[in-house]
Give the backbone structure.
Amino acid sequence: MPRRTKILATLGPATDVDGVLSSILKAGANVVRINFSHGSEDEHLARVNASRDWAKKNDTYVGVLMDLQGPKIRIAAFKNGIKV
């Protein structure tokens, strides 16, 4: 019976070390999460490409979840004393 539950792993600087991503995916992770609140576009692209390359070499599928930063509500006093 195919597994219906997904195992998600968050990628970041610690997973950029040689062999770490491969170990995570070999252990059963089938979705990788990229946190767009941190890092550069080049770093994100490299992680997505590495995940896709691994999946292609291993004849499997790895989903990519792109976690976008949501809206931030900030409340503070204005210089002119206007209250929010």
Observations:
- The chain has one domain: 8-67.
- Residues 8-67 form one domain.
